[in-house]
Specification:
264 residues, alpha/beta, 26% strand, binds adenosine-5'-triphosphate
Length: 264
């Protein structure tokens, strides 16, 4: 079942005060996401990945095009209760997790905020929070009383993933969610997404520069280049028979070790 439909989505940024200049960041892209699907959106820096994610999360207004989630036009949602419904179902994990924290809130408060979206669940919130922190490999007693700036970049990213674990959304938009996490923990965090998928039917849009990583974790890969989706297919199709020159270049950048293991 399709849960997200993106159609002809375009974003033009206008920059400059006197001499205005237009930047075509996302150019007429369309795609669908099904329940339980794990999609990787791969592309070089500046190709429009974060812009796409922010439009889907309803944080940045598209210049044109539409986004429908479970049949509802996302940008027509106006009432607070509808927005809460949406952000409960569709959750973002950002590239720079620092920007998404209130610097004055300790981590326990950051995580407690999740319950504003979930509502009263009649369970012991503190033990749920502790369980979520353990799931992402953090020690609750070490992090709960700290402020965001007192944590490392990787720890901040993991707190974002813990939030996601508490929310159990229908769709996760994860923008480079593991870029600051060391390789051993990275696999654990990605595994957590797979478990949410298996247990709750969650879909994932995973944004990354790393085609090798995308190959291992996804059901489908979309390659983004200069604001357009230039290629999409199963990981095998994209890796073994890349059609677009940019995909071929990306493939060459995948470390040789990955390629040796996988035989391409
Ligand atoms: N707020 C903004 N105002 C103007 N231009 C912007 C803004 N945000 C992004 N851009 C431009 O839009 C294009 C796409 O940016 P975007 O952040 O979506 O890329 P990205 O694929 O996420 O890159 P990265 O991998 O570096 O995170 C780039 O050319 C960028 O400079
Ligand atoms: Mg980005």
């Amino acid at each position: 079942m399709v849960i997200l439909e993106v159609e002809n989505l375009t974003k033009i940024y206008v920059v400059g005060l006197l001499r205005k200049k237009e930047i075509l960041a996302v150019n007429n892209i369309s795609f669908r996401v099904s329940e339980k699907e794990f999609i990787s959106l791969v592309g070089e820096s500046g190709s429009g990945k974060t812009t796409t994610a922010r439009m889907i999360l309803r944080l940045l207004k598209p210049t044109s095009g539409s986004i429908r989630f479970q049949g509802r036009d996302v940008w027509s949602l106006k009432k607070m209760e509808d927005l809460k419904w949406y952000w409960r179902q569709v959750h973002g994990i950002f590239q720079d997790p620092f920007a998404s924290y209130n610097p004055l809130y300790r981590i326990d408060r950051v995580l407690n905020q999740v319950f504003n979206l979930i509502g009263d669940i009649g369970a012991d919130r503190e033990s749920l929070i502790r369980e979520a922190l353990k799931e992402v490999g953090l020690r609750p007693d070490e992090v709960l009383g700290r402020y965001p700036h007192e944590l490392s970049g990787g720890q901040r990213q993991r707190i974002m993933v813990a939030r996601c674990y508490l929310l159990k959304p229908r769709l996760i938009l994860a923008d480079e969610p593991v870029s600051m996490i060391d390789a051993s923990t990275r696999a654990g965090v990605l595994n957590l997404f797979s478990r949410l998928r298996d247990e709750y039917g969650t879909s994932v849009i995973f944004i990354t520069h790393d085609l090798g990583l995308a190959y291992y974790v996804s059901d489908r890969i979309m390659i983004m280049y200069r604001g357009e989706i230039v290629e999409e297919g199963s990981p095998e199709e994209v890796m073994e028979n890349p059609q677009h020159p940019y995909t071929r270049k990306l493939r060459e950048d995948v470390p040789l070790l990955y390629r040796k293991w996988s035989g391409f």
